[in-house]
Amino acid sequence: MQNEFRSVWQRTFFLIWVGQAFSLLGSELVQFALVWYLTRTTGSASVLAFASFVALIPRVLISPFTGVLVDRWNRKNVMILADTGIAVATMLLAGIFFFGNVRIWHIYAIMFIRSLGSGFHWPALQASISLLVPKEQLSRISGLNQTLRGTLGILAPIFAALLLDVLPMFGILSIDVLTAILAISPLLFVVIPQPAKTQSEDKDQPFRIWEDVKFGFRYLFNWKGMFYLALAATLLNFLLNPGFTFTPLLVTDYFEKGAIELSAIESAFSAGMILGGMILSAWGGFKKNIITTLLGILGLSFGTALIALTPPNMFFLAVVGMAITGFMQPMANGPLFAIMQAHVDPQIQGRIFSMLESMVSAMMPVSMLIAAPVAEWIGIRGWLMFGAIGCLVIGIGGFLIPSLMNIEEDSRIESKASLEKENS
Question: pLDDT by residue (tens digit) across 81-99?
């Protein structure tokens, strides 16, 4: 009976996972192609910056509201509709390119729609995984997902660059429509369990989206261990994102190297991420996932510090540091998502994952606004060292916070208390 259960969840999950892997590849190809088109046709940094801003808006401002809808609607249908909406928008842009009528604002609009669709799709997928996969396997699945992202980080730009030489833009955009069909098709033939409704959703009262958004925020805040975990993820993005955004300047200005060396250091990160994800997928991490996460954060601190402290004549050490950082990212992130999937109540997971996405995404523009002038003052290596010290504080501090260290043991009590407090 146990073997039958194992084969059922594995078959269902991997049918979905393979389809989503193709969809992710298509999205990466489109993203690369659109950024390259904007770069080639405008040569404007402000155009590229605004394109990034447009794609970021739904992730920051709309995600908490999409999470509420994900929790109330059928999650399989949400994924199907989100993928379909993204595909239709991309097909529309492909048609505009085909007839030669494309304008910059068309690309902005499609980027916004694609980001909005992802804002529905991502929390629906993450919340569905917790209902499909046994809790003891969630860290391995997270490691598998990190491996996929690392692999696409290497392959997608290569494929996109090759395709740009042989296909027009509408042809590349059409590939994303095909991969969306490959993602949607398995969803039509699988059953994804639905969580039980909360008391507030069962009450005979009109649907009030803002009340449900506040419910999610209070639920997260009332559960101190989970709140600290989400806060740690947000701070990590604030500390590390700017330093790695400045990597091209570090390579050219400090190490006085060129495009080949830049490619090497970026590939080292992706290679490390693939290896770390594979090991986490096979190993599963420590019995307490929080230990794996905190040790991963300490590893991020070490790798980042190694890059910051590398002398200008020892570039290979920076490559090693970047590989270590890539390796530690799945160790830090994979168990973190597994903890949330395993211990947040299924009926609230859409909101929690959307809020995490909103918090983490909001740190990107904030950190860049702060990091740019600070890096001008203390240098890029100075910001990297600041990030390394911040990760060290988060990693060590996490071991000293009882509510965080006991988050998995106390999950049933804390989660139930949070729901009862909000439903009362």
Answer: 999 999 999 999 999 999 9
